[in-house]
Design goal:
Blueprint: H1 3-18, H2 25-28, E1 29-35, H3 48-62, E2 65-75, E3 78-89, E4 103-116, E5 119-127, H4 129-135
Parallel strand pairs: 1-5
Antiparallel strand pairs: 2-3, 3-4, 4-5
Amino acid sequence: MSAEENKRLVRRFYREIDEGNLDAMDELVAEDYVDHSPPPFPLPLPPGREGLKAAFRLFRGATPGTHRIEDQIAEGDKVVTRLTARGEQTGDLPGIPAGNSPRPLEMTATVIHRIENGRLAEKWSDKDLLRFLQQLQVLPPLDDPPD
């Protein structure tokens, strides 16, 4: 696949997630997919594509939202995507109850996907987890002194 085709594949991946179409993962993601940067929660996820689908089911159910692609660079079999994810916590995450009202969330990330045979085969990501956990009220904001 060309660099442009690889970028289109990654864009479609995020579009399908945003639309809640996890069945599309069977077409877009390799069965033995490897996530080198799994979710920051202790989750018993199955390996491969099924683990990815399980993680997205959990996150979409508890924190529905969207991904906006800010930049993409592709070379060889890799695509680097800088994105912003926005949503709100409306359901429970492992160890993090939803609370009485939805919590707005915004997280930036830089994600590297490796493509093999026209499917996403591996992923590495650098996410702003500190800000994410602060928005979920798991960690206090850095500018607030502890009580």
